[in-house]
Every structure is written in structure tokens, then in C-alpha cells.
Specification:
The chain is mostly helical and about 70 residues long. The chain has helices at about 1-5, 10-30, 40-50, 55-60.
Length: about 70
């Protein structure tokens, strides 16, 4: 248990950053109806299931550039 305890100060900000990134991505997905490819349901699943990578993939590849 002590071994895990030494990583807590690093893991808590990491978990908070992951949740914030996911929430920002989901809010953006819901508010904007135009995507380069895919649908709203696809991007919500990608943002929720794939942790850090999902929202980053959405902002890089899924978000429409004409906003």
C-alpha cells in the first residue's frame, strides 16, 4: 500500500486533467453539429472510452475547421 501512496500526488492531477479534457470534448461535441467525419454518437463514445487519447483524437481529427 505504501508503494501506491507515493504515486497519489501525481495520479490525482492526472485524473482531474483527464476528466476535464473529457468533459470539454463532450460539451464541444454536443454543441457543434458539424464534424469532419463521423457522427455525434461516435465521437462521444471515443471521448469517453479512450481516456486521454479519445478527446485529443476528436480535437485533432473530428472537429470541423470551419467553426
Amino acid at each position: 500500500m505504501n508503494e501506491i501512496g507515493q504515486y497519489i500526488p501525481f495520479l490525482i492531477p492526472l485524473a482531474i486533467a483527464q476528466v476535464v479534457l473529457m468533459v470539454v470534448a463532450i460539451v464541444h461535441i454536443v454543441r457543434h453539429r458539424h464534424y469532419r467525419f463521423g457522427s455525434m454518437a461516435l465521437w462521444i463514445v471515443v471521448a469517453v472510452v479512450f481516456g486521454f487519447i479519445g478527446p485529443v483524437v476528436y480535437f485533432v481529427f473530428g472537429r470541423d475547421r470551419d467553426e
